Amino acid sequence: MSELATLPTTADPNLWSDDEKALLEAAGLVIRKSGKAPEPAPRPTVVAFLAHCHRTGLDPIAKQIYAIKRGANWGIQISIDGARLVAQRSGQYAGQTPVQWTADGLTWVDVWLQEGYPKAARVGVLRRGFEQPLYAVARWDSYVVMDDEWAGEYPNRKKTGNKTVSAMWAQMPDVMLAKVAEMLALRKAFPQDLSGLYSAEEMDQANPPSVDPEPRPRADASLTPGTRSAQRDLFTHDDAADAAASPTEPGDAAPVEMTQCERCGETGEHDGPLCDVCVAEVEAEMNA
Question: End-to-end CA distance of the chain, in Å?
Fold first, then answer.
């Protein structure tokens, strides 16, 4: 029986096996859209992802941690189960208070049975050595995910300009808001372990993941999904090919977006969650 693939121990894609590349693709570090070539995450995101996996011990195959692209930016997220596991492994986690919801901020209930959506949810996390639970409150208006409303038939669909509550938040409003409150409380109780890691429920309202709103006819792909050839060069960028595929006129350069490094906090121009200096430092630590 062959050994199961594990995450690579280096951020150098030239040293990764085909199985390691496939594993990173399963973790969300490659986007596949119909009719388009696979889009790998930028190197800083890959480095940050491997560093977070090493630091937290979370499993990307179990979807405890994964990479995701939102708009033009890549990020790293964890599931609520992953956050609970990190807290448990710390040895300082002592449980939680029951989740409660409110419609007016005055009366809190243990089960949400009212018509309409709750206005807020709260939960407290217990940490050994602390006299009181560390509470966090999540407000509905701050985290509810609103989707664009569309009219017409594809390919002539158009946005109406209105917004509607997304399907998941409309179907399970109490559960979704409770997840946000719990994630906030866990990060408050374990900042050293969970700093810089956020859940989908926290981030979806700010910038939804990059997805095609409608399926498009599949074009001939340069790589066949599911084959070894589709996994070999996903993390190797070809600047010349990119330029040829997306020609631009003089003066049409894309605007540069300034982002904050998750590690050092410096704001600058970089493709992922880490700046160039931190990428080099993390790579050196991983290869030491």
Answer: 31
In a 13 Å sphere around the CA of 40, the CA atoms on its Cβ side amount to 21
SS3 66: strand
Residue 150, amino acid: W
Is residue 275 within 8 A of residue 44, CB to CB? The reply is yes
Ranking 55-69, 99-113, 148-162, 227-241 by mean pLDDT, the lowest is: 227-241
Q: What is the pLDDT of residue 226?
A: 43
By three-state DSSP, how is residue 177 classified? helix
What does the pLDDT look like over 144-177, one tens digit per residue?
999 888 888 877 888 888 999 999 999 999 999 9
| pTM recorded for the entire structure | 0.70
Q: At what angle do helices 173-189 and 80-89 cross, to 10 degrees?
A: 30
C-alpha distances in angstroms, 52 versus 66, 77, 151, 209?
Answer: 10, 10, 41, 20
Q: Could you tell me how far CA 51 lies from the centroid of its own chain?
A: 15
pLDDT score of 178 more than 70: yes
How far apart are alpha carbons 45 and 11 in whole angstroms? Answer: 10
Angle, vertex CA 236, rays to CA 230 and CA 237, nearest 5:
115
Residues with Cβ within 8 Å of residue 251, at least 6 apart in sequence: none
Residue 219 has a pLDDT of: 40
Q: What is the pairing mode between strands 108-109 and 134-139?
A: unpaired
pLDDT in tens, 17-71: 888 888 888 899 888 887 888 888 888 998 999 999 998 999 998 899 999 988 8
- Calpha distance 200→166 (Å, rounded): 13
Q: CB neighbours (10 Å) of residue 32?
A: 14
Q: Which residue type does 10 have?
A: T
Please, what sign has the CA dihedral across residues 183, 185, 186, 191?
Answer: positive
Per DSSP, the three-state class of 270 is coil
